[in-house]
Design goal:
Number of helices: 18
CATH superfamily: MFS general substrate transporter like domains
CATH architecture: Up-down Bundle
Low-confidence stretches: none
Number of strands: 0
Mean pLDDT: 89
Shape: globular
Number of domains: 1
CATH class: Mainly Alpha
Distance between the termini: 39 Å
Strand content: under 5%
Radius of gyration: 20 Å
């Protein structure tokens, strides 16, 4: 009976963490789909929609970047559950209010707050599930969470196309409040509780990374490995209509359908990379192979010309499959750091990855007149994948690592 009770609590934690990432990705994809109709409703011209849309995305990414640091430190200082409750409350309120904006300034403030709230969702779920599961099955739990995020992306694409932009935002906010109620029955990580009682261990300290160059180096390596994921989902798919025109696609390309097909490929990739990682007993090998696949797909994709929308969307799926190693990457990053800094890393890292979209979009804007959009996108995509694979080579393998250790 005791074993059944433990298993029931673990399954509930996985399910609730998975729903948190579902809401996370739903909101990110939703804004990409609603960018044009919502800004058009606010009276912006077609030229303003592109520039203001990128500015709003940057506000959300900055919110995520700052929120990732704050929620991560809080998770190590006060507990994993503190993130799960605080983040979803802020997100739900901000996203519901998004449906009632009347100007760009209000939109920007709420996108920042929604991003700040969402910042705690994915990393907190990965942290607590990783600490509750056995070494052999840890990768399976994180794959389930990431698969829910893929479903959130697909749902965001469908909701954004089927409902008005106001209704779509209210659905997201309402889902967040439902998730808050489900979290009332969760329990704290026992691994964290054992470390929390040790007063002599610094928890959630940013100074630890400044004082220890090896910790900082490991964090930056993990950051570089994750950047390609956001390059393709956050930049390529958002700019899919513009890319379609540059590739002379024989029809109209929409962001919603590009993201939908990307997420279908992403889901297949996540399951495939997760299963392969479990089968071969290596996180590094699975991530490296899939990033190499993505590089090959990217080179082929950008060399296409005068193609049908069906072929364009097919390559969106292939790109999604190639970067479908997010779950393996995240659990590998979680396993790299001790319990006293694990939430700080796992919560901040995916948001740092997303936050890299800010300098990248600024770089695109600056170099677009000189190099052209297609060339700069190719350089960013290729360079991010090469840098990721080089960083991966120098990280230690963590597949069999136990998590009951701390950083001193």
């Amino acid at each position: 009976m005791q074993i059944n009770n433990v298993n029931r609590k673990l399954l509930l934690t996985i399910m609730v963490s998975a729903l948190g990432y579902f809401v996370d990705v739903y909101d990110i994809i939703l804004f990409a789909v609603l960018r044009v109709p919502s800004l058009k409703a606010l009276g912006l011209s077609p030229e303003e929609i592109t520039s203001v849309g990128l500015d709003l995305l940057n506000f959300q990414l900055v919110g995520m970047l700052l929120g990732g640091v704050v929620w991560g430190m809080l998770g190590d200082k006060r507990g994993r559950l503190s993130i799960l409750f605080g983040s979803i409350i802020l997100y739900s309120l901000a996203n519901f209010a998004n449906a009632f904006v009347t100007d760009v300034t209000q939109y920007a403030v709420l996108r920042f707050l929604a991003g700040f709230g969402l910042a705690g969702e994915f990393g907190a779920g990965i942290t607590i599930v990783s600490e509750l599961m056995s070494t052999q099955k840890r990768g399976i739990g994180t794959t389930i969470i990431t698969a829910a995020g893929v479903l959130g992306g697909i749902t965001g694409g469908l909701v954004g196309n089927l409902f008005t932009w106001k209704t779509a935002y209210m659905i997201g906010g309402g889902a967040g409040f439902v998730l808050l109620l489900l979290r009332l029955s969760l329990v704290e990580s026992t691994l964290y509780l054992s470390v929390k009682q040790q007063k002599n261990i610094a928890k959630g300290s940013l100074f630890a990374f400044i004082k220890n160059p090896q910790l900082l180096k490991r964090y930056i390596q993990c950051l570089f490995i994750g950047i390609p994921f956001w390059v393709f989902i956050g930049i390529y798919m958002t700019l899919a209509p513009e890319i379609g025109r540059l590739l002379n696609v024989q029809g109209v390309i929409t962001t919603g359908f590009a993201i939908l097909f990307f997420n279908i490929g992403l889901g297949l990739g996540e399951f495939s990379s997760g299963l392969y990682s479990q089968w071969c007993g290596s996180r590094k090998k699975a991530v490296f192979i899939f990033q190499a696949i993505c590089f090959g797909v990217l080179v082929t994709f950008l060399s296409l010309n005068d193609i049908t929308p069906a072929l364009f969307y097919f390559f969106c799926s292939l790109l999604g499959f190639g970067v479908g190693n997010w779950a393996v990457f995240m659990v590998m990053s979680t396993e790299q750091f001790g319990t006293n800094l694990r939430a700080t890393v796992t919560v901040s890292l995916p948001n740092m990855v997303r936050g890299m979209g800010v300098p990248l979009t600024l770089l695109i804007t600056a170099l677009k007149p000189t190099l052209g959009l297609l060339m700069i996108l190719g350089l960013i995509g290729g360079a991010s994948l090469i840098l990721a694979m080089i960083s991966l080579v120098f990280l230690p393998e963590t597949f069999s690592r136990k998590l009951d250790f701390v950083e001193t």
